[in-house]
Amino acid sequence: MEDNILEFLKKEDKAYEINDIFNSLGLTTVEEFKELIKTVNKLEDELKVYRTNKNKFMLFNNSNLRLGTMMATKKNYGFVDIDGNEDVFIPPTCMNNAINGDKVVVEITSKKGMRLEGRIVKIAERNIKDLVGEVYFEKGKMHIKLDDEKLKINIIVDKEHTKGALEGHKVLVKVTSKLEGNTYKGEILKIIGHKNDPGVDILSITNKFGIEDTFSDEVMSELDNIPDTIENEDISNRTDLRDEVIFTIDGDDTKDIDDAISIEKLNNGNYKLGVHIADVSYYVKEGTKLYECAKERGTSCYLADRVIPMLPHKLSNGICSLNPNVDRLAISCIMEINPKGEVVTYDILESVIRSRIQMTYKKVNKVIEENEIPEGYEEYKDKLLLMKELADILRKHKVSRGYIDFEIDEPKIIVDEKGKAIDVKVRERGAGEKLIEDFMIAANETVATCIYFMELPFVYRVHGEPSEEKIQKFLSFVSSLGYQINGKVKDLTPIAMQKLLEQLKDKKEYHILSSMLLRSMQKAIYDTENIGHFGLGSKCYTHFTSPIRRFPDTTVHRLLRKYLFKHKIDKDTIEYEEQLLPLIAEHSSKKERDSIECEREVDDMKMAEYMEDHIGEVYHGMISSIMSFGIFVELPNLIEGLIKLDDLTDDYYTFDESTISLIGKKNKRGYRLGDELDVIVKGANKEARTIDFVIDNDNNRKLYLKGVDVNAKKEEKSKS
């Protein structure tokens, strides 16, 4: 009966009374009517059918309802994330007791400008998992103050479940049962450390996301069977490339080196590019604890002062890392590329290599940007210049097919020996960084294309087309700023998006607008179905070049060994991979999102920690976002702070959603995205990860400039 009901409701985008459904399905008896009501109720519980206020029924997907994840804020409002592609703003009065992380049903109530607004109609699943917080005692009972202030719940821990935790300890706690209201009983799973101990601040965040910083004894014991050096039996069937001029280019402090490169100019005018990737799957084999651990972790996590690796250091920094002047096992993708940037032939093979030198981006940039040769780089100058020549060709070819470079800057947190943030800079991205990116993209595409045309199960890196509606909202917003942008919303090709971005390049708000456009697009994920990669303008793409730090790359290596080197493409193998790979792709996508969110939270915390030492200082910034509660201002080093609406005392401001601006009652222009202004750091809170600014004016200078007793001034003001 379920299928019949759903099929009937699909016919028209409208709601039906129960009698309409009963008659249309040709039902006649009382028993059938009871069965119909029972089935419709079940479909309603499963969120397949929606019951209106008038007791009519329609398909859930045909209504204004969406299923998503609540992202609550400390201000009691929130956003519902729908499939990672859409955010719906939820006002405080429409939260319906939903808390951060809940799976909720949201009704879209309005569409204003670029923002959807809605109300929570149902909590589909209360998603309270393991949480991180600080131990405190009240009336003799242990309580946990959660780090996530958006979770409005109280946790009490019985004496037998404390694991010896003391006041001030940061702990990982499991919610075991509900007591009453928003009070729950909990059990401490792990003591992370005292809140004042160095490094505990970051570990508190990694534990929140389930990112383990240690490996189990079972995993570590398997490392005893892995050698520290290459043996003769390891290389007997491999192509020996140890006499080739091969080297690596990485950051100054990189210890886990995945990739090495080589280049030659052929007599026919083509280029022979070698991309040699650490053969991790040779050591991390299916069926081992090491493999299962890497699969569960999914990725390494790069944080302010540390890396939490996917693989133990013996592998990630040792036998798998392509360190200089030692033999290493690799899988090499050797491509012949013509002067147009097209790969005309290629070979993918098991190899043994010996990197000549561990180069750094800074020194390579000296060679290819400034024609300055650092010590030790003399014999590689010609190779580097030839690589730059090929990289320029590859980039031009990518751009011609629609490659979109959003040029999004990233922050780099500088910390001292205790992990305290002492500076924040914009991460450099020079010609050397772009060169490696171009070469890795070429290798990833070549490997993906090889397996795609063999029609074998595989893991692709895919990026879907953006929705017309989102791009239209973005264009409407750009128009509200007074800019005329040419482009057809229905022509959503990568080249069209590229041209759209190009028209914004001369605008003062370019980096903000490019970030907004990027957020309007879908997120790249791993999938077994190849739909191409929109942002790269690529028809076929995978991740092959970082198996030390990404499990999908390790999986691609495993499949290359199985399909190309061992020629196992029988029916049983194909059926096995068809069942396994979708699970790996889905889990890897989730772990990637967790890692990105963890990295963002650590950056936010460390930025706030840095700004705690700069309260009362003046900075010049640009308005990066405007909400109904205030203005976000971004500084040149990418630190972002909030000017609260309450601190804008020179006028009465209202929020205009269509133009994303604050309009003053007296000053009609108010504040708009991209406006530049000077701000004073009013406050910063590392634990809350917040930074507060105020406008730099005479009144605020008296209150907040460095050296002034801010609290005394406030007290004096309140008395008056």
Task: Kindly list the characteristics that best describe this protein.
single chain, 720 residues, alpha+beta, five-stranded mixed beta barrel, 28% strand, globular
Provide a descriptive summary of the structure in words:
- It is built from 17 helices and 33 strands.
- By secondary structure, the protein is an alpha+beta fold.
- The protein has a five-stranded mixed beta barrel with strand order 3-4-5-7-6.
- The longest helix has about 40 residues, at about 570-610.
- The protein is globular, with a radius of gyration of 29 Å.
Topology:
Blueprint: H1 2-10, H2 18-24, H3 30-45, E1 49-51, E2 57-59, E3 65-72, E4 78-82, E5 86-90, E6 103-112, E7 115-125, E8 131-138, E9 141-146, E10 154-157, E11 169-180, E12 183-194, H4 200-208, H5 217-222, E13 239-240, E14 248-250, E15 259-265, E16 271-278, H6 289-297, E17 301-302, E18 307-308, H7 313-319, E19 327-337, E20 343-354, E21 358-360, H8 361-370, H9 381-401, E22 411-415, E23 421-426, H10 431-454, E24 460-462, H11 468-480, H12 494-502, H13 510-519, E25 525-527, H14 551-565, H15 571-611, E26 618-627, E27 630-634, E28 640-644, E29 653-656, E30 661-664, E31 671-672, E32 676-685, E33 690-695, H16 698-704, H17 710-719
Parallel strand pairs: 5-7, 10-12, 13-20, 14-21
Antiparallel strand pairs: 1-2, 3-4, 3-6, 4-5, 6-7, 8-9, 8-11, 9-10, 11-12, 15-16, 16-19, 17-18, 19-20, 22-23, 24-25, 26-27, 26-32, 27-28, 29-30, 30-31, 32-33
Helix pairs in contact: 9-10
Strand-residue fraction? 25-35%
Mean pLDDT: 90
What Rg do the Cα atoms give?
29 Å
The largest sheet is:
5 strands, mixed, barrel
Distance between the termini: 73 Å
